[in-house]
Every structure is written in C-alpha cells, then in structure tokens.
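Predict the 3D structure for this chain.
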Amino acid sequence: MSDLTQHFGPNTGYLIERYEAFLQDNNAVSAEERDFFTNRSHEIEAFLNPPVNNSTLSASLPTPKRTMPTEEEVARIVGAARLRRMIRETGHKAAQLDPLGSSPLGDRDLELKAHGITKADLEALPASVIGGVLAEGAKNALIAVEKLRSVYCDTIGYETDHIQISEEQDWLYEAIESRRYFAFTNEQKVALLERITQVDTFERFLHKVYVGAKRFSIEGTDMLVPMLDLLIQQSAKTGTQEVVIGLAHRGRLNVLAHVMEKPYSAILAGFKKLSEEEARELYTERSDYSGDVKYHLGYEHDVNAPNGNQVRVTLVPNPSHLEAVNPVVEGRARAAQDTRVERGKPKQNPDYALPIAIHGDSAFPGQGVVAETLNLSRLEGYNTGGSIHIIVNNQIGFTADPQESRSTLYAGDLAKGFEVPIVHVNADDPIACLAMTLMAHEYRETFHKDFLIDLVGYRRYGHNEGDEPAFTQPKMYAIIEKHTRLRELWAQHLTAEGVITQEESDALLIKVEAQLQEARNSNEQPVMHGTLRLQYLTEEGDITAVPRENLRHSTNSPKASSSMIALGEGYLQSAKRACKNSKASTGDTQKLSLSPPF
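Done. Predicted structure below.
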C-alpha cells in the first residue's frame, strides 16, 4: 500500500472504506493499515480530494437544460416596462399644472391594472426592469416607479415622445430624470423673492394709482420675469452677444421695467396726461406720441455677466398684432449671427444671438404666422440655431375658454409637428419654472434647436383692466379672487424653511413700494439705461429709426451705400406724397405715422 497510484478503480473504493473505518475507530483496522493511515494522512486526503479544475469539470458534465420563465413572469416584466414607457410619455396628464387647482386629466395607462401588474409584482422585480437614472440604487421596481412618477407627474409635464432622434431622446430622459437643474442656494432663493416682490408690487402699484388704466398685467404668470432674467444670465455666461425678445402686450411693462431696466419714472409717465412737448422729451427727440405707445415701443439694454461677458438685450417693437413679431425676432437674431468680414457667403454662428419668442396661449395655435415661422426654423436660409419659446398661458383667450379657441389638448401642441420638446410647468412653482428655463437653454446650446415652455398660470384681471372677466368666467374668477399671490406663496415657503424671516420679507416689500412712490413723485428727467426704438415720420418725410449717417456707413461699398440712400430717398418722397394726399382728402392736419420694415 506504499504506492498510492496503485489504488485506482475498485481499489479506490476499498481504500476509502478502510480509511473511513480508521477515522471512526483506529482499532477497527490492522496495525499495518493503522500505521499507513497515521503516517500518510495528508497524502491520502490530497489524493482523495484533489483540486477541482472547473473548466475540465464543466466540460465533462452534461449541459443543464435552460429554465424558461413562465408566461406570468414574462407578463409581469413586460407590464413593468410598458408602465415605465407610459409614465414617461403620458405622465404630464397626471401632473398638477393648474395653479388654480383643477384636477389633472389623468390617463388609464398610468394605472397598474392597465398593464396587468400589481404593487406586489413590482416589489418582486429588480429595479433594472425600469432602468434609467432613477432606478440606480432603488431596492426594487416599485420604488423605481414611484421615483419616476414623482418626476413626471408633479408640477411639470414633459412631452418628448414626438422627438425622432435617439440622441436627443436619451439626452432629454437623462436631463429630466437626473433632476440636475433643481439645485438652488438659499441666496438664490432670496434673490428670487426680491425679484418676484418687484414684479408683484409694480403691478399692484399701477392698479392702485392708475385705476382702470390698461396695463395688461402679468399677475398670475409672474415667473416670466425671473425666467427671462435667468435666460439672459445663462446666455451671457456662454458668450452670447445678443438676446432678442419678442412679446405682445401681456406683461410687457413689467418686462420693460425689470428685465430691460427701463426707469419706473419713464413707464409711469406713460400713464400721465402729457403735453406733446413733454412726450417728445421723455420718449425720444423725434417722435409722435400716442396713448398706447408704451405697449409698442422697443428697448435695448446691455447686461454684464459675473464672468465679465456683456450681452445686448433687445426687446423688439411690436404692434397690436400679437405674433406678427415672431419672424422679426428670428430675422434680427439671424442677422446678428451672420458675419460678413470675409468674401463670399456670410458665415453663421448661432451662439452669437439667442431669439426668445413669448406667445399667448390662444395666439400660439390661432395665428398662422406661428406655424409659418416654426416651419422656417430648420431651413438653411432662416435657421437661427434654435429659439426658446415661452407661452404665457392664462388658460383663457380674451373671453374664450380653451375648448372654444383650439382643437388640441394643449396650447403648444402645434410645436409637436416640428419636433420641438415641450414642457408644461405650473407658474406657482418658482423652482420648477427656473429649472425648466435652465433645461431649455442647455438643450438649445447642445442641439441648436427650438424648445417650448408652456407657463401655465392665470390672468388675475380681465384682458385689460377695464373689463370684468367674471361676466364670462364667473367660476374661474371666483377661484382667482381667493387665490394667494405668488409673492406671498414664495415668501411663506422661504419663511417655513427658515431661509428668511417675516421681517426681512416685509422689508423687501416696503423697499420696492418706496421706490415706486419716489418715481411717481419725481419731476426729474429719467436716466435711460437703454435705448428706445420707435419708428416715426418727420416733417421732412424720413421714415426710419436709424440716422442717415448710420445708413451711409452700413456697408463698406460706397457704390452700394449711394444706391441704398438713393432708393431710400425715392421711397421717402413717395411716402411724403401719400401723406400730403391723405391730408388733402381728409382735412387731417396730423402727421401720418407709417411703419417701415424693421
């Protein structure tokens, strides 16, 4: 038994049997066997229990049959995956978008039973079935689904499933679910309160001092101003040279006062009964003044970013025809993006200028110029590298309810046909509004395509402050009358968080009220921080907002410059004759105000 290699085959079984007997009772074996097992136990153990070669072992074993999941297991997995997709695509129908508290529309595809699954089924499945950023670290699929709902069914509704390019879809899902735009410091939150205080107090002041005067207030969608602030700040940081803004009457005075920094005194003067001489001095050296000119004027203002960059902000002049300003904004932005310092075709840099178009919720689907402008957005000759659209959604158009003025669920549905990402955001959730503003800007910077924010709010007063909205929407305005203003809501929120005290909040209010009262009482000529833009017809017949000397230097070619001036003079003479003919036929001694192409 000295040679272990002899113990193969049946001898191996005999050796194991004798060794096991020795281990149980060493007297159960012969003396010779006892000495052998005692002296060579390590060798015997190694011989009887050799190291396993997994590859050799697995090769020698028969391949086990694969266990197929049952139909029930497959149904649960497919149901969970379908639920994830429907939350992403239709979660906006369960989001609380209306500040006035109307119930969300809802969708049966957001319910578990629509997919044949239960909470217990989701608890039994891994979070990887749901996938995405929100599933990371989740204990099971149920927790991942709850996280998904908290994002897609809160105060923001996302519509991105109409985007056809996978790269953009993936970017949007990650941007939405990572929640990376929602981190704001306490200092930023207090600054937001200060800005909302300015917006709200300005409107209250006008309502109290100029009773019944038209102002087309922004109340109910106050967040428009902080959103524009943030867009301009982000543009300055990224090196944009000009931001071009187009909007109609709603909120225009507030945008002029706070975004464009037009002095309060200059705006308040528009509500006063001014003599023609006073109006000329206040608005421009050469202008014709009319009572509603404050809603039509443009303005320009330079903004300095913390990083030292400067951006020119232009509010484009706009007539009463609402969305007519859209192509003007796009054209001005495109002109600012093109460089003509070299021979040949101008070179475009979409980062030079950012167009921002602000729409009405009835005007966006109702006016054809919106669709026409969107249709040009991706064409080579008209592309501006993406515009940011904001619908100031009052949930009412003049006196018409949405179901009376459009054939779509949302005001912004038209944009789906042009593959524009759409987010609907509750205007009473300030952080959500700013987060979507950051997302819109980054998307535009990344893909150079349009982005639409549907700012869902309300209109505290009528279409203008001279009409009574309760005549046509009594139920809605009964709710609005009791609804807490955004400024108060945000102040209460920050006070509850301990970010600011009630005394500090009240002090902000007193400060702004004092500034407005001082501006009202001041008889000094206001110091303009920007430039007014107004077209006019002078006694000489000039129809332009640009001095002739500037026009003469608008090109490096003397021949071209002379041709332009000659053509302009011919056009002006025709306009002058039209003016004289009009006076002769009507006996009107007032100047004829013509609006030339901008």
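The CA atoms of residues 164 and 348 lie 26 Å apart.
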